[in-house]
Amino acid sequence: MHIPELIRLKRDGHKLTAEQLRALIDGYTADKIPDYQMSAFLMAVFFQSMDPEELGTWTEAMLHSGEVLDLSAIKGAKVDKHSTGGVGDKVSLILAPLAAAAGLKVPMISGRGLGHTGGTLDKLESIPGFNVNQTVETFRKHVDEIGLGLIGQTGEIAPADKRIYALRDVTATVECIPLIASSIMSKKLAEGIDALVLDVKVGSGAFMKEVDQARELAETMISIGKAMGTPVRALISDMDQPLGLAIGNTLEVIESIETLRGEGPEDLTELTVELVVDMLDAAGKVDDRAHAKKMLYALLKDGSALEVFREIIIAQGGDGSVCDDPSVMKAADTKITFDAPQGGIIEHINAEQVGLAALELGAGRRTKEDDVDHAVGLILKKKRGARVEKGEPILEIYHNGTGLEKCIERLHAAFQIGEGPAQDKPLIYERLS
Tell me, how does this one assemble (predicted)? Predict the structure, then answer.
């Protein structure tokens, strides 16, 4: 099959056949199609999209490019959650142990940072010794015995998606609904789950800037799940300012541990609990949402969820003492403050600019080959709606000397301070199923 012809067909808006789409996935997985040709095809999809039939074939081809896990021997409901990505979004680190403490099995296969957004694997690797590269058999054992597994994509699970995922980050094709939907669903359905809950972010720090876009993405993934026999629920949540207070890998793990102690920021805790309630509900374990929330808050307060987190850290080679003393994870030694340039009300915080500010310090990667500095990052002292005086610290910068000037430029662009009031936005916009 002539690959340039397939690229041209999609570039010009034509529908590709199932055979052609499978040939692209199979050829790329087998190293018969180079990165530059797949990059060109992804850009063609970015501009011309895919219809539902194409998208179903593309997703199924990625799903079956590797092993599809069989977790049927594991007792209990297997439910996972996926976020479309945001700034300060460390929900997975709290949600997985909390859901496991509540009785669910959580087989979580995660990714690395994309552009200005952080990645769960990068955060986990800031824990000394934590190994995200587990075999499928070990992953299956952890899910069965501990209630969760936290790994990256292996060579066996959706290998086509693993490679395409990395390409999208460096070819400006991240914000494409068919590519986002197929990437998420191929990877998640390969986990052998019984149900999936999605956290679809919307706002300045999300890939979806408008609620209508986020709803379209959610509905696209729900329809893929329905076609493949897996119930999918989606929650559309705010990413018009960072979630929680910490941005940066080590700092976000520390905040996650604080939240697992019942001492985390209100917005982060609330969103995590709401998502776990949806996971329990999808598994048929919720008669009353208010009662389920009360139970989950109790699991945070009494340390049950934190103990599950400690158990998976140790099982995957990490230092479990971080749960007692998070300072074991060393943040950058040098810390300065970013002060309010004027007094007034913080009317808006552009979450994307905050994410890019952390990227300038080295907290993320611009190319798939870049190293990440786990120690650097930002901590918000004030959020949207807060009143500040001129010169008052509104953010702390943890840095190792790289990119500081550009970071501060980004922060000046991120904070809008005026007479107020700040626009009131809900943490959760809507639920879909």
Answer: Homodimer.
User: Rounded to an integer, what distance in angstroms lies between the CA atom of residue 295 and that of residue 324?
Assistant: 23
Q: Which of 163, 168, 188, 310 is catalytic?
A: 168
Q: What angle do CA 205, 207, 208 make, to 5 degrees?
A: 100
* pTM, two decimal places: 0.90
Distance from C-alpha of 28 to C-alpha of 42, rounded to nearest angstrom: 12
User: Average pLDDT over the chain, rounded to whole?
Assistant: 94
What are the helix (H) ranges across 344-430?
351-361, 404-414
More confidently predicted of 152 and 76? 76
Active-site position among 81, 82, 105, 201: 82
Q: Which of 112, 142, 187, 384 is catalytic?
A: 187
142 included as an active-site residue: no
Q: Based on the residue annotation, tell me whether 126 is a catalytic residue of this protein.
A: no
Check pLDDT > 80 for residue 369. Answer: no
Give the three-state DSSP class for 138.
Answer: helix
Q: What is the pLDDT of residue 418?
A: 96
**How far, in Å, CA of 62 to CA of 17, rounded?**
15
Question: Contact 272/102 with Cβ under 8 angstroms?
Answer: no
- Residues above pLDDT 90, as percent of the chain: 83
The DSSP letter of residue 422 is: P
Which domains are present in the chain? 3-48 (1.20.970.10), 79-323 (3.40.1030.10), 329-418 (3.90.1170.30)
Q: What is the pLDDT of residue 216?
A: 95
Query: For 311-314, which contacts have Cβ atoms below 8 Å and span 24 or more sequence positions?
Result: 311/146, 312/96, 312/97, 312/142, 312/146, 312/148, 312/149, 312/150, 313/127, 313/130
Q: Does residue 161 carry a catalytic annotation?
A: yes
Of these residues, 122, 161, 194, 267, which one is catalytic? 161
Choice among 65, 126, 182, 183 that is catalytic: 183
Percent of the chain at pLDDT above 70? 99
Residue 291's contacts (CB-CB under 8 Å, 6 or more residues apart) are: none
